[in-house]
Amino acid sequence: MNRQPELRTMNIPAPLPGFARHLLPFLVILAATVPCAWAQNLITNGNFETGTFAGWTEMNQAGGAGNFYINAPGSNTPFGFPTAANPIGGSFYAVTDTSGPGSHVLYQSFVVPANVHILSLSFQMFTNNQPGVVFTPPNLNYNLGAGSNEQARVDILNSVASPFDVGASVVSNLYDGASTGANPHAYTAMTFNLIGVASTPGTYYLRFAEADNQGQLNLGIDNVSLIAISTFSPSGLTPNQQAVLSPLDQGLNNGNNTTNFAALINALVNSNGSQSALAATLDTFSPEKLQIFSNIAFNNFGFTATQLDQHLASLHYGRGGFDTSGLEVLDSSMPSELSHIKNRLLAFNPAPVSGGLLSDVAEPVLGGVTMSSPRNMQGVVAPVAEGNRWSAFVSGNVILADLESSADVANAHYKTGGVMAGSDYRIDDHWAVGGLFNYSHTHAELDRIGSAADVDSYSPGVYATYVDGGWYANGLFAYSYNNYGENRAIPALADSATGSTSGSQYGSNLDGGYEFHRGDWTFGPTAALQYVHLDINGFTERGGGALDIDSENADSLRSRIGGQMHYNWSWYGGKVTATPYLSATWQHEYLDNSRGITSQFDGTGAGPFTVNTFSPDRDSALINAGMDTQWNSALNLFIDYQVQAGQSDFFAQSIEGGAKVSF
After folding, report:
1. C-alpha–C-alpha distance, residues 220 and 123, integer Å
2. pTM of the model
3. Which residue among 118, 150, 408, 466 sits deepest, i.e. has the most Cβ atoms within 10 Å of its Cβ?
């Protein structure tokens, strides 16, 4: 006879201990009804809820009395003996009863598949021993001539065993005895780890047997299951799903029996044997959805840079403090007072451009000076006026972004609300410098099952703008401190994993262009380059399916090429000026490549795994439209709408409004 397997027992309804407590009771019901490639219940009709012995074979020793019967838990046996209730027993169970000496067996064959890493037998059993004595000879013969025999047995038999064999055909004896004391006895839950006992692939028999020649012995049996879990090897999983599964599969190979590990295996078996359900469960285990943090960082910075550009554009045109009317060309042939008057008259009635060509000035020759000649411009630009060198602005914006078309983070979307304030100083007629502070809160829905994330960003920054004729350039550098919170719903565990961390972000934007003027119209080409670096600190989640997630970093480099136009529209005698504007650019991403997020299941002893983020579509279109309204020399109100479109995996839009003052 082979070595005895591990035996654990505890009276119902107390829970089972250790690994069995977390894994087996859940699998008993599930695997009994749902076949799957990685977890199978090898026993048929183990709870006898068919009301029959379907799947089982019953046999009695010739000449004896009694039999196995289907009975209702808590009711008297067919010959009138009381039995205990079973809170989880359903409507039926199997029990022996007799009116005289006899020997009875109930058995079922099962086939152990290859690559089994868990093979766990569990059942509920009671023995009501009416005479209160126990005799366990090495046989199941009830004849008194063979000696006293009052016992119940549970055995694993090989494929060639006879039903009443207790010799060499017994692979392992799991139970041999009977209860004593007052009847009826409560059900006892028993679990046995059969790895090393019957784990060699092949056919075996599970046998329940009872012999009694001293008095009636009732053997009751219910909720029999034999769970076999093989290596997880379903086909059709994505590389990320395989990555999540790998340490769990390895844990099965290594005999991992920690509580947290057992809970994860529970969840996988709860996938109902369906590949799609298993894939969905693995997706909930994965930190892949957290890549949305980099999407938020890169795209929101782009919206911020564009919004700042509109403020700087208003400075270029004198809406908020940077007024090019301060530029004057002095005619040395007349007194300065007359030269000032001449400039004002020319400003109100500029001459047409020679040859009908476009230029950033009304006339190449102004006040007797050829403006196309840099030499002739030297010493003729008068200092700007001291007034309105300072400008300040405050704005609020909302960003709505949608990643639902991405197969990797399907159904994800986020909303950002932010407030930005800044102030700048006009150094001279070419330069202005300033500083800003931006606060934003982002709430992201990561899926349709309740997973979510939040980001709070605190972003100081500095900026500058330079203007020379029709040329201009803008620069922005900003640092962000980010606080992150996340909650990953894991329905298969009836729980969620939550965590929080922080990180830093550095972003810079350089853009510029050239502007042509014709009447009230201004238009021209634009170009920009944007770089963002993101760091996120590692952290450990809490709750079911919690992960230890390593720190990560990501980079984005984007170019923008396009054009813009403005129109100056005045009314109330020129006291109020509205400037609608429109820009369109093509944006290309050079970095933001697929990167790995490395983590491991917390408290399981399973090894680390790495899932890869998706690489976004490289090209998108940016459309920006809005209006500035200059109400007086100091106050400007504005509204702005932006949209980022054209990518299969991302769509976003933003609306912003605010005010600017100059002083």
Report:
1. 10
2. 0.69
3. 150
